[in-house]
Amino acid sequence: MTSKLKPIFKDNKAFIPFVVTNDPDFESTVNNVVALAEGGADIVELGLPFSDPVADGPVIQAADIRALKADPDISTDTFFDIVEAIRKETQVPLVFLTYLNIPFQYGYEKFCARCEALGVDGLVIPDLPVEERGEIDPFAAKHGIDIIPLVTPTSASRIEKIVSKATGFIYVVSSLGVTGERSKFADDLSELVTRIRTVTDVPTAIGFGIHTPEQAAEMTGIADGAIVGSACVNLVAEYGNQAPQKLTDYTKQMKTAIAGQTSKA
Amino acid sequence: MTELNLELNKNTTGRYGEYGGQYIPETLMNQLDLMTKAYEHYKNDPEFKTELHDLLVDYANRPSLLYYAKRMTEDLGGAQIYLKREDLNHTGAHKINNVIGQALLAKHMGKTRLIAETGAGQHGVATATIAALFGMECEVFMGKEDTDRQKLNVYRMELLGAKVHPVTSGSMVLKDAINAALQEWATRVDDTFYVMGSATGPHPYPLMVRDFQSIISQESKSQLKEQTGKLPDMVVACVGGGSNAIGSFANYIDEPSVQLVGAEAAGKGVDTDLTAATVERGSEGIFHGMKSMFLQNKTGQINPVYSISAGLDYPGVGPEHAALAASGRAQYVGITDDEAVDAFEYIAKTEGIVAAIESCHAVAYVQKIAPKMRKDQIIVCTLSGRGDKDVASIAKYKGVNIDD
Ligand SMILES: Cc1ncc(COP(=O)(O)O)c(C=O)c1O
After folding, report:
1. Edge-to-edge strand order for the sheet containing B163-167?
2. Cβ-based neighbours of A256, under 8 Å, separated by 6 or more
3. Closest by Cα among B184, B147, B182, B189 to B166
4. Which of A174, B44, B48, B197 is most deeply packed, by most CB within 10 A?
5. CATH of domain B16-59+95-209
6. Percent helix, strand and coil across chain A, each rounded to 5?
7. Cβ of B3: how many Cβ atoms within 10 Å?
8. Is A56 marked active-site?
9. Domain spans in chain A, listed from the N-terminal domain onward
10. What pLDDT, in 10s, does the model give residues B265-282?
11. Ligand 1 atom nearest residue B247's Cα
12. B19-23 and B289-294: which strand pairing?
């Protein structure tokens, strides 16, 4: 299977912003994603809101709650309707971040088929460790969807096992704990990325905690991309219908900061 | 008392039919791998087993009594009723059996800090107690709703030296406390062991908790044999996440003549939205590290649940119970708030036992089923805990003000 995501990292450090689907509503999600694409986002990561996002910190938890409060019985079909509306405006590469129960309830086959049809090229599933990938792998592979694995500073001897199955890109978690802005990252991130690169040529993107242009530059000095969640979600929460302009500006700023970075790892 | 048989369970894969597994963030996987290996090692280690045995006997007051409830039996006029008295354990519930096991494992793994979630507060109290005994740090996560319902247990934990964190996210009950404890663990794994309070979560928790709680049925089986020469016809226990129930069932699962019944919290009724009857009302899903049965909507969002009992209002159930329900080996029945409160008063007045409101869900089922059984038949009902913690809220439920 040839990944649609992998080539994005080829001659360019990738900036991957994140917003939550239906936060605060259908229309805003579409506008916000379009704004991120206009700013130059290389991939947009769309979170599917979940009632109990155990890997997420307070900012993204609050976004999930807003999204579900706006429409408590929101269906997975509506999530796909939002993507369909986005696709009328932009062809920016998209990945979902979703807890496994959502695709499980929808049916893995149907979920992956709809992702393929709408150009959602990858799935980041925080509660799917490599041991359980067999759940969804066959369906994802059939529809050309990358399952993006997470590697963390605690992965230790698990790294080889995790990344040997990777396609698309590898989500390198910057530090322990949950998502949210941080001022400090794990000390050994370069080592972690170096170790990954001895096993695979699948690109890496660092996420969890990145919010300033300086941090984005530093992280793309180590890895092939930077993922920014809580900072974008904060802009959405703070600026309401002014958020698109803010998101475009922020994306441009981050893109400038990482342009010309070369990996030291 | 004979040593706890940690080898009873032949299936150590973490899969119970299609249920179980390890659906948990990568940050925690290395710890779970280490824990699995450590448990597989220590459960065969004679020194570990002796330590465990000594703590269960000398500290927790095991074996617990198997008590023939004569007045209840006569009053209900059917099957003979035996009560497995986990309420008489140190700290007043079955939770201590599991905590001693996990905390001992934590100590052998070199951990110095225990964290736990708690609903009714019994598991938190047990964890705080053993942390004090072992000289370990302890932090307990408890939904804000539950810290209000169970003030006495909050103070008790603090008295034992634990720090209690009221959790204000989500519906502020047990499920949210588990989320918070998992998040805290992900932040600090090196010195910290998460002591899971029920037979739930990712492997190896359901396995370990079942093994440690299987002391309940190991004892009841030999005690009943001694007292009557027979096997029970039915074993009844309440089910929140399912730890006292799986421990009560474990030694009977391979005895097909023994009927196994779990009493779930139906809250205001199995057919209402104010319920926690997971097996009857739930559907298959993946949450809190396991594939099992959950109360959820069609999209897969986990539902808020309700029960008068803070220890039973969990939207899921341990994976082995999901498998026992699927195969039909065990039955699960919903007991409403009203039925449980009636049972609370009934067992107090007939047997002089103030039992936990959780346990009274099992008692309520016994009240229903015993009269329909023959007098030569035997029911073993687990009283998972004592009810002192519930007296104030039952008074309130009945409209009695005992505050000052
Ligand atoms: C006395 C008592 N019984 C039962 C339970 C329910 O837990 P489980 O189903 O794991 O036995 C609790 C939980 O807090 C409890 O305190």
Report:
1. B163-167, B137-143, B113-118, B192-194
2. A213
3. B147
4. B197
5. 3.40.50.1100
6. 50, 15, 35
7. 15
8. yes
9. 12-149+211-259
10. 999 999 999 999 999 999
11. 11
12. antiparallel
Question: Is residue B137 among the annotated active site residues?
Answer: no
Token duo for residue B337: 């708030």
Please state the rounded mean pLDDT for residues B356-377: 98
Q: Which DSSP state fits A200?
A: -
Gap between the terminal Cα atoms of chain A: 28
The answer to whether B15 contacts chain A (CB < 8 Å) is: no
Fold annotation for A12-149+211-259: TIM Barrel (3.20.20)
Let me know if domain B66-92+214-397 sits in CATH 3.40.50.1100: yes
The beta-carbon neighbor of A155 closest among B26, B179, B296 is B26
CA of B265 to the centre of ligand 1 (A): 11
Q: Is residue B15 helix, strand or coil?
A: strand
Share of chain B above pLDDT 70, in %: 100
Number of H helices, E strands in chain A: 11, 9
Q: Is B150 in the pocket of ligand 1 (CB under 6 A)?
A: no
Residue nearest to ligand 1 atom 5, measured at CA? B311
Average pLDDT (A179-197) is: 89
Question: Do A101 and B296 count as a contact with CB atoms less than 8 A apart?
Answer: yes
Q: Is B93 helix (H, G, I), strand (E, B) or coil?
A: strand
Buried b / exposed e across A191-214, counting CB within 10 Å, b at 16+? ebbebbbeebebbbbbbbbbbebe
Q: Which residues of A40-58 are buried (b: 16+ CB within 10 A; e: fewer)?
A: ebbbbbbbbbbbbbbbbbe
- ipTM (interface pTM): 0.96
Of residues A51, A128, A176, nearest to B27 (C-beta) = A176
B286 touches chain A (CB under 8 A): yes
Q: At B328, is the secondary structure helix, strand, or coil?
A: coil
How far apart CA B203 and CA B335 sit, in angstroms, is: 29
Q: Which atom of ligand 1 is nearest to the CA of B312?
A: 6
